[in-house]
Amino acid sequence: MAMNDSVNILNSAYLAVEYIDSFLPDNPLQQPFKNAWNYMLDNYTKFQIATWGSLIVHEASYFLLCVPGFVFQFIPYMQKYKIQQDKPETWEKQWKCFKTLLFNHFFIQLPLICGTYYFTEYFNIPYEWEEMPRWYVLLAQCFGCAVIEDAWHYFLHRLLHHKRIYKYIHKVHHEFVSPFGMQAEYAHPLETLILGTGFFIGIVVFCNHVILLWAWVICRLMETIDVHSGYDVPLNPLHLVPFYAGARFHDFHHMNFIGNYASTFTWWDRIFGTDSQFIAYKEKEKKQQLIMKKKAN
Prior knowledge:
297 residues; globular; transmembrane helix
């Protein structure tokens, strides 16, 4: 009975979104996107699309999403939004990070990306435009992938902080006490494999079109670069996501080394109490701000 109720609720929600979608104006970018997608299918093999397409999506998304945080360091006005203002970015750290990223991207992640085609073939995942899911289905699938990845990340990340393991693997990622966007994937190769596994679990569960692979890549990179940015910028649209952790949450993890282990959401840390030091830190900050306001008055 409970299963039937859940199915009915999901069906009702799907129909409601479809009904709302019917009233929305046509997307002017849909036809050009359709033409470009069909051109890609006509001129490239599935192996080329799955392999080189995935690599291009990853590299272009990663470094383009890093641009705002990189530019912020040169804008004095943005410094008031930097979380750890006493630890500015340096060229030396950024160059070291960039070199490690290139190694990880092309010697660790690229071999994994080369398996994308065989994954899509094994599970008979379509590439055709007609099979592409609607925007709201794709959005829901990405959210589902984020929930799964967040659970994996919390428990494995917490394990990597164990005193017997930390110095061998995860310590590399914590070389930067004050993180910056490009540092999101700066990690030991083993960590890239261990925590990166969580990214693929959601794909196995939800993937019904190759577009989800790319959409989920972009969503995941958007999240991880944001929480590593070092800046808590107002009007950040990601803050509209329910239970979203954000930059302050993860920045404290780099500053404190203990607690706040989840990647995207706050619920696992809240359930297991591993956000207690962060909550205490926020309370202390609030008290200090109140004292400063009273002195100013």
